[in-house]
Automatic annotation (TrEMBL):
Domain called Mur ligase central: residue spans: 116-281
One MF term in the entry's GO annotations: ligase activity
Binding site for ATP: G118, S119, K120, G121, K122, S123, T124
Protein name, as recorded: UDP-N-acetylmuramoyl-L-alanine--L-glutamate ligase
Function: Cell wall formation. Catalyzes the addition of L-glutamate to the nucleotide precursor UDP-N-acetylmuramoyl-L-alanine.
Compartments in which it is found: Cytoplasm
Pathway the protein acts in: Cell wall biogenesis; peptidoglycan biosynthesis
Record field: catalytic activity: UDP-N-acetyl-alpha-D-muramoyl-L-alanine + L-glutamate + ATP = UDP-N-acetyl-alpha-D-muramoyl-L-alanyl-L-glutamate + ADP + phosphate + H(+)
Cited InterPro entries: Mur-like_cat_sf (IPR036565), Mur_ligase_C_dom_sf (IPR036615), Mur_ligase_cen (IPR013221), MurD (IPR005762), MurD2 (IPR043687)
Keyword Nucleotide-binding: yes
EC number: 6.3.2.53
Length: 448
């Protein structure tokens, strides 16, 4: 289904956040017979619905919202509406036509798109791909889950999108190049279970992409793919890291050396894998990765990373504060913790509680010495999961500002204070940017 297919039909947009707002404006321009917006989760964080938005579609709240959804020819749900929402379950039972803004957009733009998803690494990898393509004289527009909503993107010859499992779930068209960086249990409450989550995530590759690129070092992803044809980055058959001409680790395309690992400014082995995937995508798009390796090396060295992924914040105390608010699962937090191995470490955890199993985090920290501070809502459950570990010191506080204040007291000089929540931001914050903003403000407010 395309945007143009909504002309003359009754449409209900479900969600009043960034994606829902973009959908209302885009759909209104295509002449629907009737257009309404539905918000069943309005709270103190909700932004005003006014101006062009209110003119394009009235905002319906409360129980009346379901009646308007059920009466519509097409429901365009925002990604934040979970698959398990009772209204969505009932709408599907009734056979309602349900789509998303990203699915409507992809129907028209998929052939010009690199789409990147994954339980870990999708944000950094998609950003790397866009950055390196630009350096290779391949202009592109970057957007999706972490950037501009797809329906707000300008026209372009090439797009690079970072796509969440929520966005992937309603796709009926795959992008030209479909990329998957990792798979592990995430967002299970929103998808209905582990199998359902993998199904929705891998829906990105379900509709005939020209090329599939995956992280070949991820065991669960390898299992789910089976013998499906794909470029497996991180293995000897694609881009990989191995000993180079000087004996130090280098990036290679198969057996041809490209540049040293030291060129990449991002910490952690997981970021080596992200760059392997990004370079494999460039190679699949026809970029001469070997012939232009020197230009690529300069571009890699200049890559700044994402604002909310292992981003270090300068502090006069000598402590290193690190914003890793995009780490919304225990597995992502594990990667972040490993990136600072060998330094005194305090980790701030907790956020929206989706009932995730934190046993993997406990097992990973069994022999580690560090402090962990828990904040609402999932903080108490994470701290409980870590109970009894002999080298892990735990504390609970009421909010993020209090966590930063306590971290200053318990972290040794020269140490690291890492916000790697292992949980999403929703509930206490509007989105991940809001959580990062509060973290930065807390660091400033508590500075000596």
């Amino acid at each position: 289904m395309r945007l143009s297919d909504l002309r003359g039909r009754t449409v209900a947009v479900w969600g009043a956040g960034r994606e829902g707002r973009a959908a209302v404006i885009a759909i209104a321009a295509h002449g629907p017979a009737d257009l309404v917006a539905v918000d069943d989760s309005a709270n103190f964080l909700t932004l005003p619905w006014e101006g062009p938005l209110a003119e394009a579609a009235p905002l319906i709240t409360g129980e009346e919202g379901f009646e308007r959804l059920a009466a519509a020819d097409v429901v365009v749900r925002s990604p934040g509406v979970p698959q398990t929402h009772p209204w969505l379950v009932e709408l599907r039972r009734r056979g309602a036509t349900i789509t998303q803004g990203t699915a409507l957009w992809m129907a028209d733009h998929g052939e010009r798109t690199v789409g990147v998803t994954g339980s870990k690494g999708k944000s950094t990898t998609s950003s790397l791909i866009s950055h390196l393509l630009t350096a290779m004289d391949r202009p592109n527009v970057f957007g999706g889950n972490i950037g501009v909503p797809t329906l707000d993107l300008p026209e372009a010859d090439l797009y690079v999108l970072e796509l969440s499992s929520y966005q992937c779930s309603d796709l009926t068209d795959s992008p030209r190049v479909a990329v998957v960086t990792a798979l592990f249990p995430e967002h299970l409450d929103a998808h209905g279970g582990e199998r359902e989550y993998y199904r929705d995530k891998l829906n990105l590759i379900a509709y005939g992409p020209r090329t599939v690129v995956v992280n070949g070092a991820d065991p669960r992803l390898a299992f789910e793919l089976g013998d499906r044809a794909a470029i497996r980055a991180g293995t000897a058959e694609s881009v990989n890291v191995a000993a180079g001409p000087d004996g130090a680790p280098w990036f290679h395309l198969v057996d041809r050396p490209l540049f040293p690992r030291a060129v990449l400014p991002l910490v952690g082995r997981h970021n080596e894998g992200n760059l392997c995937v990004a370079l494999a995508v460039l190679d699949a798009l026809g970029v001469d990765v070997v012939g232009r390796k020197d230009t690529l090396a300069v571009a890699v060295a200049e890559f700044q990373g994402l604002a909310h992924r292992l981003t270090e914040i300068v502090d006069p105390s000598g402590l290193t504060f690190v914003d890793d608010t995009l780490a919304t699962s225990p597995y992502a937090a594990i990667h972040a913790i490993d990136a600072y191995e060998g330094r005194p470490l305090t980790v701030i955890v907790g956020g929206n509680d989706r009932g995730v199993d934190y046993t993997p985090l406990r097992e990973h920290l069994a022999e580690r010495e560090l402090s962990v501070i828990g904040i609402p809502d999932s903080g108490p459950r994470i701290i409980e999961a870590l109970a009894g570990l002999p080298k892990v010191r735990t504390e609970l506080v009421d909010d993020l500002t209090a966590a930063v204040q306590l971290a200053r007291q318990v972290t040794p000089a020269g140490g690291v204070v890492l916000l790697s929540p292992a949980a999403p931001s929703y509930g206490r914050f509007r989105n991940f940017e809001h959580r990062s903003q509060v973290f930065a403000e807390a660091i400033h407010a508590t500075a000596p």
